[in-house]
């Protein structure tokens, strides 16, 4: 029932809208997963991968309040369960159904939390979740850069999107835990760093380096830095909304911090606040330790890739570099529990961050879109083979309480869930009890 390291990949279910909501970019459709899903699951066995970042397409599944079309999810998750593959369920990836609108909608958190609970009830054997993928990126691209969904460009729109997205994530965790008290949440979030290009750029870089933590600060109930508190208050967050997040800090005990890292995650900041890609200056090791020092949670490398170039070795070398960084993080005492090459197959229009529909293939997958293995796929398979038995021997005490799908009905698993459920009920009752009066305390 316990695992010491999770080697994973993913099948992306991104669904942002562009062109003022008229065009939806559905990665599962564009990459052929709706047609080839059984073949895609076969590829996991070929790679000896048993953990998959995966989720149903939200816009096709969530039809309205309390209304669902589970047909595709029933087929795919039924097959994952039969194959004993552990899914990390990605419930919302960069977009919402048309009837919800976008992330400016204040009803989104409650609506999404209900969907998350109903998913958990239908697929009770699922234990690992990423309720909302890359919350900071989703809010930034949708409401600060104006690329997706609401396509707004203001601090007010960004804060509105962010507070709705993170509240939805927090409420979803609470609702899932009602159904599955041993659920674990692997919050895949982009790990960023902003380098000042010159002395005049130090201040804007410092602000950006503070802002990068906002989604996880709120999600984990950590008090934000004073400058960011003023930023939130000045742009539409109320004190009550802020204290909602602080009051949910106990949820962090169910969390693994997922850190995504790409060659585009580090930025060079100019004096006017503009930025451009800096390449991998610090690398995954240094930036992950910054996040770990802030939150002190177990870590998983939840996304990375690089486009295959003319030699075919570019992605292979990037895989080696990222794995070296994972080992470095682990060897310096950070509890890192998994690694992910994202994704299983090539993607479409990743070169423009899904903000244009060019239907151009981005060769970033372990397999191409004809489901032929790429050199990085062969190398990842070898890496898993080489390290899968070494890492457990190095970390006898570092285990994650993962229940395999085929173990879900075992009595020991049920007993543990019942114990955790009763513990949560007790905690809930204690939270609801009125505080004792001063006179009662003195007695």
From TrEMBL:
Positions of region (Disordered): 412-443
A Gene Ontology molecular function term of the record: hydrolase activity, hydrolyzing O-glycosyl compounds
Record Gene3D superfamilies: Glycosidases
Superkingdom of origin organism: Bacteria
Segments of skewed composition (Basic and acidic residues): 412-429
Pfam family membership, one: Glyco_hydro_1
GO biological process, any: carbohydrate metabolic process
Official protein name in the record: Beta-glucosidase/6-phospho-beta-glucosidase/beta-galactosidase
Species of provenance: Microvirga guangxiensis
